[in-house]
Specification:
By secondary structure, this protein is mainly alpha-helical. The protein has a domain of 62 residues. Helix content is 57%, strand content 9%. The longest helix has 22 residues. The termini are far apart.
Length: 89
């Protein structure tokens, strides 16, 4: 018997994989968002994609604008995290 938590994990993993594949096909630079996300995880921050890119992804259209992101961290914490990250963003 499969536990509900395992089912949720598998569904989420599949959705993330599908999102990455779709975003790659639509010209979305997921690797840049992933670098920023990995940096802000240092302070347990969350990162969300907002704006026109969300609309474009939902409509299956090529990205028409730069990526807009929002986080729950203060700007000072974001700067700290990005400085901690050795990769260039």
């Amino acid at each position: 018997m499969v536990k509900k938590s395992d089912q949720v994990f598998l569904v989420t993993k599949t959705k993330i994989k599908n999102f990455k594949n779709t975003s790659k096909n639509l010209n979305f630079l997921f690797k840049h968002v992933d670098l920023i996300f990995s940096a802000i995880k240092y302070k347990n921050g969350s990162l969300k994609i907002i704006g026109g890119n969300v609309r474009d992804l939902l409509n299956g259209e090529k990205m028409s604008s730069d990526t807009d992101l929002v986080t729950d961290l203060r700007i000072e914490d974001v700067i700290f995290c990005l400085k901690k990250k050795k990769d260039k963003i």
